[in-house]
Specification:
The protein has 93 residues and is mostly beta strands. The chain has one domain: SH3 type barrels (Roll), CATH 2.30.30. It is built from 1 helix and 7 strands, in the order H-E-E-E-E-E-E-E. A hairpin with a 5-residue loop joins strand 1 and strand 2. The radius of gyration is 14 Å and the shape is globular. It starts with a helix and ends in an 18-residue tail after the last strand. 13% of the residues are buried.
């Protein structure tokens, strides 16, 4: 399967270990010497509607990506490392 970087952007990222949604891919990091992709970047959540800035970006190594689908990217990573988005209906600062 071939995929462009533009197509990879804005895909939903889901952790297969616990099913939590980590967010949407916003950027990728690649090695300019070898030309290989190193990781994908998911922007951090907004704090207090963006007034207090953002949390740190989530960087997932390329080796942790399990499946790239049409709308979703499945990753097998330790879910405790990342501060995943809470379920809808819960208010969290």
């Amino acid at each position: 399967m071939c995929c462009r970087i533009a197509e990879l952007r804005n895909k939903n990222v889901v952790c297969v270990k616990n099913g939590c949604v980590l967010g949407y891919i916003n950027d990728v990091q690649f090695d300019t010497v070898s030309g290989s992709l190193q990781s994908v970047v998911i922007p951090g959540r907004l704090r207090l509607f963006g007034i207090l800035g953002r949390e740190e970006d989530i960087i997932i190594p390329w080796s942790d990506i399990t499946v790239i689908g049409q709308e979703t990217v499945l990753v097998s990573t330790d879910p405790g490392i990342y501060n995943a988005y809470p379920k809808k209906g819960r208010f969290r600062l």
